[in-house]
Amino acid sequence: MISFIYNGITFLGKCLQNLFSSVKYICSGQMRLKHALSQAALISYDSLLISLTISFVAAAVITIQVSKQFLMSGADSYVGGTLTVVIIREIAPAFVALSIGARAGTAISAEIANMQVTEQVDAIKTLKVDPVGYYFAPRILSAALTVPMVTVIAELVGILGGLLVAYLTIQLHPHRYINSVWAWLKLRDFYISIFKAFVFGILIADVCATQGYETKGGAKEVGISTTQAAIKSTIYMLIADFLINFVFYL
Q: Where are the domains of the chain?
């Protein structure tokens, strides 16, 4: 147990060190915009469909669970507001980050791990290029900017999905649903969800890239590293989610 905690703290230190180096690389103007754009497509655009699907299904399930109970108690007009709060505060940012981490995060780890074991990273060093900045910076910047964008779209899809399911299950009129959404929706919750997605995007890219960068050995270790990247990014993201909720909602 002590060894597990020590390794986790050590790895977190490496992640913070790599994040700092990446920020310096970005601020120095060495990063090429086309690298960031290509990573943005790989990280968020390619994960857009699965993220929206998960958000829609989650909203539909929650609506089914609560709509009939609300109808029986005469509080059916609160379905839209309740769902909106749940979607914006937790479901959309967390599920989008998990889906992107599972798809794009593991790809980042596998790509960098493969470069490490095939000595491509060493080749970059011989050209006097900072490998951490070169490999990490475009991925971290792209994830930090695009994960919030996907989260906003997922929130909209989730709310509209809840409207559709509420209408089909308890015949809740869309006008009553939307009025409830506007009554419960707060800009503060929206801003916090964007901040969450921003932090999650940085964590996904930084943790997965660090895990890949620390890989030593061969093809077997690349596979192990990819699995570890998915596990660690999820753990750190859930811890960050707890801390953000603790700070803003307690």
A: 2-249
